[in-house]
Each structure stands twice: as C-alpha cells, then as structure tokens.
Amino acid sequence: MIVSHKNYFQMFNILLFLLFFFSESAIADNQHDGWWFCPEESGSGLSIEIQGYTMFAALYTYSPNTSIEGYPIWFSSAAMYNPEQNAYVGRLLYWINGSYDDIYPVNPIPVDVGTFIIRFTSIDEAILTYSLNNQPIGPIRLQKFLKTIAPGENDTRLRGWWYTPKYDGWGFFLEAQGGKLFGAWYFYMPLEDVELPIPTWVAFGGDFQNGSNSFSSPVTVWHNGSILGVAPYQPPQPTDANTTVYLDINPDGTIYIRESGDDEILHLQRFRFSP
Fold first, then answer.
1. Could you tell me if 218 and 207 are in contact, meaning their C-beta atoms sit under 8 angstroms apart?
2. Rg for the chain (alpha carbons), in Å?
3. How far apart are CA 167 and CA 18, in angstroms?
4. Domain residue limits at 217
5. pTM higher than the cut 0.85
6. Cα(173)–Cα(163) distance, rounded to whole angstroms?
C-alpha cells in the first residue's frame, strides 16, 4: 500500500484541513489557482486554490530549525479575502503529529506560528508577506510557476486540492498546463530527535497533454534549501525517491493514484473547503 514506515518516500496522500466542512456545490475555477514561486528562490513556493472568498494555501519550503535545518516542510493558511487590504489574510499554521501510516492513525495538531497575507497585482503576479515565530518575512514577489515554465492552455480538470477520506491530514495538489503537469504530496514524517511527526512534502512532474487520462512520473525529494524569503538563499538539492507515481483521471471527476511496487489504489476527490 502507499504508506509504509519502511520507506517514508512511499507515504503519499491527501491534506484534509479539519477546520472546514465540505459542500456539494461546484468548485468555481479561479484565475489565481495554481502553483506560485519566486524566480530568485526556486525550490520553494505556494500551492493555492480559491473557493468563494476563501483561499486554502500551502507554503512549501525548508526548515530553519537547527535540528532539521534544510528539511522539506510545509505550512498552511486558510486566508479570507479582505476588501480593505485587497488581499487574502489569515494565520500561518504548522501541523504536527499527523498520521504516517494507516496502522497508527492520529489527528494532526495545528500550531499557530504567524501571519499570512497575499495580494494579487495581476493574473500572473502577487506579493506575499508572512511572519514566522514573530519574524516578519517579505514582501516577496511571486509569479505563476507553470505560466513561466510552460505557457499555454491550463487543464482546469486537475488544478487545485485533492484528498482521500482514508488518510486525514494529508494533501495533494495538481496543476497541468502547456504540456506539463506538476504535483506534490503533503504528508507527515517521523524523524529521529523530533518528538512528533513533522509535515513534509515530495514533488513530481513531467510531460502531460491537456485532456489526457493518465500520467506517470518519478518522485523527487528536495532538501537542504532555505526558507522562502529569508537570506541567504540556499538552493535545494534533488534526490530521486526511487518510486514512480501513476495517475488515472476518471470521467466522473475523481482520480485513482498508486505508486510503483504497491498494489493499493487510492481514490482521490476534490477538496471542498468553502460553501
């Protein structure tokens, strides 16, 4: 099956933000949904989806803590649109104690670590300001990632957050554009010298024609990077996770996902976080 404590790079699945509820209403496609990055600090960025007046975002970056310095970690924010600031504003959360397999399921614990503000200056540009443990960071100028590296039509069937109810607290983000698909899994990892499992992530990407119903790609772990917006910038290094991810996109709007060497097939569905 996908989760195994023998090889943590096989632990993939879906982020379920427990502070929101699900709605059967259709998810509106927002022009700002997708991957965002700072070209001067590649290897970190944001995965963003907006539903109504609510944005759910994950900041994927690297740990500044000396015990796990440079390790890939993520934060999340459920930011609400503030018309006075013309920005999405929320708290920055760090999640711990999430399940790392299906044998020992636990509920992740949110820790409020700062603030999160993002303002879109155009369809393809934004300014991020956030704080972490009372340290202000930014402003950071962001650009649309796939618009930069693979300009072309976006396959809106895939863009946004996905989850499976089987694994609470894990998440998956997809976007396909211009003949490319880029995705990431957000999950939890037990580490030596760290009391509770920490939030971590892996990435994958490759060729994908819009409208295709299948995709496969090797999985990559990025590590030894610096936290987004904090100098000096340290470019992260890639490591092959020695596994391949396979996606089957179904006509009913769901996705089947599996990995090489694993018989379990997980059924993914859209994450609805706003009524």
1. no
2. 17
3. 12
4. 8-270
5. yes
6. 9
Question: What was the pLDDT predicted at 100?
Answer: 62
User: Is 199:186 a contact under the CB 8 Å cutoff?
Assistant: yes
Q: Are 100 and 84 in contact (CB under 8 A)?
A: no
Does residue 158 lie within any of the structural domains? yes
Burial of 41 (0-12, 13-18, 19+ CB in 10 A): buried
If we measure between CA atoms, which residue out of 12, 11, 49 comes closest to residue 274?
49
Q: Is the pLDDT of residue 13 over 50?
A: no
Q: Count the neighbouring beta carbons within 10 Å of the beta carbon of residue 29.
A: 14
CA–CA separation, 177 and 207 (whole Å) = 10
- Using the 8-state DSSP alphabet, how is residue 271 labeled? -
Average pLDDT of the segment spanning 132-155:
96
What is the mean predicted confidence (pLDDT) over 150-155?
95
Confidence band, pLDDT 50/70/90 cuts, at residue 102: low
- Across residues 45-62, what is the average pLDDT? 97
- Structural domains counted in the chain: 1
